[in-house]
């Protein structure tokens, strides 16, 4: 960022250009937790509505809800993100999206209908983020996890076909007869952002999707690898890699200074790190008392706005061009959530707006 007669101007973004050579616009969303153990969902919806009014005013373009299947009280993602986003759609003009929907848990026909309805409710402002999920969750739904990847591929293929107005889909794991009505608001259906940390996820994003979507727990090193794979595979298939949308979720806590952010954010950030570490998804040294410091911006954004800007540059240079900031985790008080959003909107986002 440079200063010109007192005005802030955006710095050039490394490696991000459209096919015409102009800078590719960076996207900014809020990945919100709609499940709390100390406030009912209705209260969270009201709190988040006020937050989204602010977010729209200061430069955010989207809001996201994740899917989880909790069996005991815990804050985080909800088991029914489509219902939550349907409620949110009438309260904001921001784009809405799932980050992510666990595709193997859904019957493809039910999913095709529900997405079409949500796309109509939102007036074409919906993005379907998708992921595979864990074998344990599939088992609860009576789904053979060994066939989960094939089921996901065929479900995405069926969605594309049904949303295009075609009749049925017959695969090895997925069978749908007939078409659907109503069609999605947008011809061909909403964009699909495909998550996953293996090479097959990248192939799936190229074959069925419109973006690759990195998860909360995936480190920068993996994100950089997946972004490179995505761009390379697009190039090999004759498509413009400069148009590749690479999105990530990043747990984020900002304060005026690094010291304040690390001190005040420790219980909330630590809760997220502990959640994923217990599942073997984040590597945290058992000797490290400072969990936030042990993972750093490989996994989270914590600090002053300047520190967040420096961290984001690393991701942009790795190929990321959409950031979903997870700002309301672990029963965080609304005032702290709002402060992070305000600091992002006032002091961080303008540095990446061309």
The shape is globular
User: Segments where pLDDT lies below 50 for 5+ residues?
Assistant: 1-21
Strand order of the biggest β-sheet:
3-4-5-7-10-11-12-14
Rounded to the nearest angstrom, the distance between the terminal CA atoms is 11 Å
Secondary structure: helix percent? 40-55%
- Percent of residues in beta strands? 15-25%
* Rounded radius of gyration (Å): 20 Å
Largest sheet: 8 strands, parallel, barrel
Order of SSEs: EEEHEHEEHEHHEEEHEHEHHEHEH
Oligomer status: single chain
What class, by secondary structure content? alpha/beta
On the 0-100 scale, what is the average pLDDT? 91
Secondary structure tally, helices: 11
Tell me the number of strands: 14
Provide a descriptive summary of the structure in words.
The protein has 354 residues and is α/β, with parallel strands linked by helices. Helix content is 40%, strand content 16%. The protein is built from 11 helices and 14 strands.
Structure characteristics:
354 residues, alpha/beta, two-stranded antiparallel ribbon, globular
Summarize the structure.
This protein is an alpha/beta fold. 40% of the residues lie in helices and 16% in strands.
How does the SSE layout of this entry go?
Blueprint: E1 2-4, E2 7-9, E3 27-31, H1 41-57, E4 62-65, H2 81-89, E5 95-98, E6 101-102, H3 108-121, E7 126-131, H4 135-140, H5 148-163, E8 169-170, E9 175-176, E10 192-195, H6 199-208, E11 211-214, H7 220-236, E12 246-254, H8 258-278, H9 291-295, E13 300-303, H10 305-317, E14 322-326, H11 334-348
Parallel strand pairs: 3-4, 3-14, 4-5, 5-7, 6-7, 7-10, 10-11, 11-12, 12-13, 12-14
Antiparallel strand pairs: 1-2, 8-9
């Amino acid at each position: 960022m440079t200063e010109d007669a007192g005005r802030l101007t955006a710095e050039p973004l490394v490696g991000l250009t459209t096919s015409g050579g102009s800078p590719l616009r960076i996207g900014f969303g809020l990945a919100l937790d709609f499940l709390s153990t100390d406030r009912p969902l209705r209260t969270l919806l009201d709190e988040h509505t006020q937050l989204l009014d602010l977010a729209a005013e200061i430069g955010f373009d989207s809001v996201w809800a994740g899917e989880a299947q909790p069996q005991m009280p815990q804050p985080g993602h909800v088991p029914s993100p489509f219902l939550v986003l349907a409620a949110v759609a009438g309260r904001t003009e921001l784009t809405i999206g799932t980050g992510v929907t666990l595709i193997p848990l859904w019957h493809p026909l039910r999913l095709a209908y529900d997405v079409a309805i949500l796309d109509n409710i939102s007036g074409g402002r919906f993005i379907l983020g998708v992921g595979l999920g864990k074998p344990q969750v599939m088992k609860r739904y009576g789904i053979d996890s060994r066939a989960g990847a094939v089921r996901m591929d065929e479900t995405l293929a069926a969605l594309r076909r049904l949303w295009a107005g075609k009749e049925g889909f017959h695969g090895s794991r997925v069978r749908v007869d007939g078409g659907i009505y109503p069609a999605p608001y947008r011809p061909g259906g909403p964009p699909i952002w495909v998550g996953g940390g293996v090479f097959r996820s990248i192939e799936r994003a190229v074959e069925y999707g419109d973006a690759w979507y990195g998860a909360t727990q995936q480190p920068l090193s993996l994100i950089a690898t997946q972004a490179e794979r995505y761009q390379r595979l697009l190039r090999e298939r004759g498509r413009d890699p400069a148009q590749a949308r690479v999105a990530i979720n990043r747990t984020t806590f900002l304060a005026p200074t690094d010291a304040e952010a690390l001190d005040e954010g420790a219980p909330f950030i630590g809760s997220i790190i502990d959640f994923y570490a217990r599942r073997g998804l984040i590597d945290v040294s058992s000797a490290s008392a400072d969990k936030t410091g042990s993972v750093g911006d490989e996994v989270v954004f914590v600090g002053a706005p300047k520190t967040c800007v420096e961290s984001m540059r690393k991701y942009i240079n790795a190929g990321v061009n959409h950031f979903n900031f997870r700002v309301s985790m672990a029963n965080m008080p609304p005032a702290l959530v709002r402060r992070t959003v305000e600091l992002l909107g006032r002091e961080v986002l303008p540095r990446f707006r061309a």
